[in-house]
C-alpha cells in the first residue's frame, strides 16, 4: 500500500556574533521552510526514497559585516531509532535520515539530538543590516516501513 507522507521540521536557530571585545547587538533571525515530502512510499520495497526541501535563514538588525548561525534539526515528534528519525501514521512507522548534503553522507542533527549528526554552521554576510541564505535539506527514507510492535495471537489450523 502506498501513502503520501509529509514531514514538518522541528528547527532551532542559535546566533552569535564574532566581535572580540565589544558587546554586539542581538540580531533577529527567522527560519522559513517548506514541507519535506517523501511522496508515495511502497512499504514492501526495500529501496529508498530521496527528497529535498529548502529552508531560508534570514537575519535583521545586524550591526557587524557577518553573522554566524547554527541550524539544529530536532528529532521530531516521533523520536528516533538506530540513529534515524521516525515518522508514524496509524500503526505504521517510517525510518528516515536528514542530511546536509547528498543522502547518506553528512547527517544533520543538532546540539540536543545525540546520534543524529551535527548542527549546520553558517556565516552570513550582511548588507544594509540584514542577511539571508537558502539551504537544502536532503531527506532519505532509509528502510522499509514496519508495523509498531504489538502482540498478535497466531493459531494453528486444526488438522
Short summary:
The protein has no helices and twelve strands. With 159 residues, the protein is mainly β. The protein is elongated.
What does this structure look like?
This protein has strands at 2-7, 11-16, 28-33, 36-42, 49-60, 66-73, 80-81, 84-89, 92-99, 120-125, 131-141, 146-147. It has 159 residues and is mainly β. It is elongated.
Features:
disordered C terminus, mainly beta, elongated, disordered N terminus, single chain, 0% helix, seven-stranded antiparallel sheet, three-stranded antiparallel sheet, 159 residues
Give the topology, please.
Layout lengths: L1 E6 L3 E6 L11 E6 L2 E7 L6 E12 L5 E8 L6 E2 L2 E6 L2 E8 L20 E6 L5 E11 L4 E2 L12
Antiparallel strand pairs: 1-4, 2-6, 3-5, 5-11, 6-10, 7-8, 8-9, 9-11, 9-12
Order of helices and strands: EEEEEEEEEEEE
Quote the distance from N terminus to C terminus. Answer: 34 Å
Helix content: under 10%
Indicate the low-confidence ranges by residue numbers: 1-22, 148-159
Count of helix runs: 0
Rounded mean pLDDT is 75
Rg, alpha carbons: 20 Å
DSSP strand tally: 12
What global shape is seen?
elongated
DSSP strand content: over 45%
Secondary-structure-based class equals mainly beta
**Main sheet characteristics:** 7 strands, antiparallel
Amino acid at each position: 500500500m502506498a501513502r503520501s507522507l509529509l514531514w514538518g521540521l522541528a528547527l532551532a536557530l542559535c546566533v552569535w556574533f564574532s566581535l572580540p571585545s565589544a558587546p554586539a547587538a542581538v540580531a533577529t533571525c527567522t527560519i522559513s521552510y517548506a514541507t519535506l515530502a517523501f511522496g508515495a512510499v511502497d512499504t514492501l520495497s526495500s529501496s529508498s526514497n530521496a527528497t529535498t526541501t529548502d529552508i531560508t535563514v534570514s537575519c535583521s538588525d545586524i550591526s557587524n559585516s557577518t553573522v554566524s548561525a547554527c541550524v539544529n534539526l530536532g528529532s521530531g515528534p516521533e523520536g528516533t531509532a538506530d540513529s534515524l528519525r521516525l515518522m508514524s501514521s496509524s500503526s505504521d512507522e517510517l525510518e528516515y535520515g536528514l542530511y546536509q548534503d547528498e543522502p547518506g553522507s553528512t547527517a544533520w542533527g543538532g546540539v540536543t539530538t545525540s546520534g543524529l549528526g551535527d548542527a549546520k554552521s553558517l556565516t552570513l554576510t550582511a548588507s544594509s543590516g540584514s542577511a539571508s541564505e537558502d539551504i537544502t535539506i536532503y531527506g532519505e527514507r532509509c528502510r522499509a516501513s514496519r508495523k509498531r510492535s504489538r502482540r498478535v495471537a497466531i493459531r494453528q489450523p486444526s488438522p
